[in-house]
Amino acid sequence: MQKLEPITDFAPITPTAAITPKTHGWRAKCLQRLVRLELPVPQTVALPATTVRAIAAGQTVDCEGILRNFGAGPLISVRPSPENPDWGGPATVLNIGMNAARHALLAQTHGIDAADALYLRFIQSYAIHVARLDPDMFDQAEASGEALRAALHAYREEMDEAFPEDPARQLGEVLRSMARAWEGTSARLLRQAKGAPEAAGLGLVVQEMAQGIGQGMSGSGVMQFVDPVTGAAQVTGRYFDQAGGRHAKPQAMYLIRDPRGPSLEDLAPEVFAQLVKHGAVCRVRLREEMQIEFTIEDGRLSVLDAVKVQRSSRAGLRIAVALADDGVITRSEALLRVEPRALSELLHPQVDPRGGRDRFVRGIPASPGAAVGRIVFSSQAAQASAARGEPCILVRRETAPEDIRGMNSAAGVLTERGGVTSHAAVIARGLGLPCVVGASELRLDAREKRLVAPDGRVFREGDIITVDGTAGEALAGAAAMLGPALDDNFRRLLSWADDVRDIGVRANADTPADAQMARNFEAQGIGLCRTEHMFFTDDRLVVMREMIFADTSEDRAAALVRLLPMQRADFVQLFEIMQGLPVCIRLLDPPLHEFLPHSREGMLELAEALDRPLSEVTRRAEALAEFNPMLGMRGVRLGVVLPEIYDMQAQAIFEATIEIARRGGSVVPEIMIPLVSAKREVELVKTRIDAVAAMVRTKAGTDFDYKLGVMVETPRAALRAGEIAQHASFLSFGTNDLTQMTYGLSRDDAGRFMNTYVQKGVFPEDPFHILDVDGVGELLHIGADRGRATRPDLTVSICGEHAGNPESIAFCRTAGFDYVSCSPYRVPLARLAAAHLALRDREFGKPA
Ligand code: PEP
Ligand code: MG
Fold it and tell me: Is 240:250 a contact under the CB 8 Å cutoff?
């Protein structure tokens, strides 16, 4: 085989070198900008991503050539430089070039303690990150001649060779190990969770060390000008003073003047002032809040690096708003700088400190926020639970890459093993999911589906618990929660989003609490109110069951008369909260047997309440059971077969509308018919609803408007939307059922095999999670087009779970939908995602 020449594609960073974030990575580009701003940056060489990829593939690089840029006997560092700083990268390695000769030289110039410390730290970092040796063998905490010899000895024992002395070899190994780490599976998954493309490359920067040790004023530190948690303007960071070698160890010192102790500002006011000036220049010229990494050597400042300040989502938003307010960036840019998905982390509720806490185990707080849900022990169960719309807590011994899909479906995660950098912790933070790891006192039996707490309490699959990822605790039951803090910056950014977006955003809200949340998040109305949820409270369930058991239309009407005032009160409350914004109410949808008890005790209770024999109640309940209830007597079929139910609901809606008018408000209710598949269904329901409206108008002696629309959830409704639209003023696509029926795939059971299907590439993604734009999407296009051909002013929307995903919002916007309607917590995300789409179109021109 022909031997390949070592790669020579690398270059010193100068003001004019051809360096871009795409070719050499973000850090290299940033260093070049610092060089252009004439900041005191030590000599740096940048390796492009193509070179790094070739190194990972086994090619060698001309390390001698790289080293020639740094003069004789240099000490250098290597840092990762991905295209986007959020994509992470392997750990930095410092002091490459350290060897016995360099150690001896340093001992002369800087003293033996400093020389020992530098050499030891290099050996430790090389052994752990490059040679991948067991960190326990290199845990010598205190630097000393003895510790140094122990580390060198451990290296020789483990590797069967002496610690490499040749700087070029050291550099070559460091580059190879960093290049390979980037290609590893966990690194790949992590950066992809942050939006990195499959082919994302890594650049590397090699820089001369500026040690921050010397006889005069010396030290090292980092400085930033905002609080990384809140984003408030404030100098934060740290400084370690070497005090001219007078201390055995560097002393931590305050940056700004502080009554508690000495500070850099006191000790070296000119250097401090230079740093503040550099920070201000960077903020304006690099248009970003930067953290400056610096050293001071005998009073001389070096800026080694300036990276974007690591920040919480909350701080990220505040920084973007502040930069726009200061005119450093435009409002559009501020919007584009905040990832829609990051908002959900911001919105996470916390456990209310004023409420009780029934803690059953303590672990490590791995990802903030708190969540309540039912215990599930597998990713499949988590996906099934999400498909049913039930929040769940994924409890695992530890998680692995194949659990990512399950984690995505869970409201929170609890693991028995792991630390803050374990897979579960890292992924949960990436997803903004509350997470507690390392709850090692738990006894977990996933096969038996049970969990034993240290105090002996047993929890089973389906039991409700609370994960408090901020405190690192798991609590029994549903803890009282505090709503998220929506501060002024949040509201302002989203109001800027509203100024630019061109698709409406409503919320799915069934209860007054949901509606209030929808208002808090400034949804433009309710796009789906699932009325069945109103009948599950104890008092109503009994009447509902009486209605279901009624033998005659009159008996049914008698039960419904009792439900009427309750429904009316529900709608009055919703309309009051929504204050004139549109409210779209879906008539009853689920199969009736869902309202019946399923246990013997429940049947007995029902028999008592109805004063009927148990055998009759049981028989009637059995008669209502269906083989395939999701395709059975539900939705509009109830409205056709038992029309009194919809009559009652329509009457309640109209009377509530009149009540609101009487109180001085106004509302135009939207009534939506679920699960339609034929035009005649709509005709039948419409005729009765119009009659109810006429009756209510006459009785009340007052007029009101309403709209009647159809929920498109069956493929046939999409195909026949042209004729259905003759009787509907709006169509709303229920993509949960539509996906289920298009694929013939049960939304409650698909979780069992979805992983396999996605892994084998049958589906690119879980279609219940990410809208299938090819198949279901085609039906959406057909439905919208045919509906609009009949009725050009038809309002078209989507209200399935997909509506809150940026990808589906992009689809609906391109298809010309009027609005999306998603769960209240997704509303801010949807508003921002819609703004991003509009801005990107402006930037790149409208998609064809
Ligand atoms: C749907 O099917 O998409 C929908 C919104 O209705 P549900 O989830 O209540 O069936
Ligand atoms: Mg549905």
Answer: yes
